[in-house]
Design goal:
Shape: globular
Order of helices and strands: EHEHEEEEH
CATH topology of the largest domain: Rossmann fold
Oligomer: single chain
Largest sheet: 4 strands, antiparallel
Distance between the termini: 35 Å
Number of strands: 6
Strand order of the largest sheet: 3-4-5-6
Length: 108
């Protein structure tokens, strides 16, 4: 196996089974990418999910995308930090790409 992708649920964050799988990957020195899934669910909290990664997996995650929510806390897309690009979805499933300024990153 060349690597692993660990999926973290956006509402609950790291769960007990996640810790077990993480320990196995660490034991075998597998490179690992963590993906926070289900950010469109009610109660999803990206900051909480990232904090559970820090606390329960004892790692310092490098966040490369930040979720975008509207005023009703509905998931609308992500800010890609590497590309400095906001990728947003509208109600009619249209995809919008918007460059993001450095000032906006400082707000994040």
């Amino acid at each position: 196996m060349d690597g692993a992708v660990t999926i973290i649920e956006g509402v609950a964050g790291v769960q007990a089974q996640t810790e077990t799988v993480w320990r196995q990957a660490t034991t075998y020195l597998l490179p690992n990418v963590i993906y926070v899934n289900k950010m469109d669910r009610e109660g999803a909290n990206f900051e909480h999910a990232v904090q559970t990664i820090r606390d329960r997996l004892q790692v310092k995650p490098i966040v490369v995308q930040i979720p975008i929510f509207d005023s009703n806390h509905r998931f609308r897309g992500v800010i890609d930090i590497i590309k400095k690009l906001a990728i947003q979805y509208s109600d009619d499933d249209e995809l919008g790409l918007t460059p993001v300024s450095t000032i906006r990153f400082q707000e994040c």
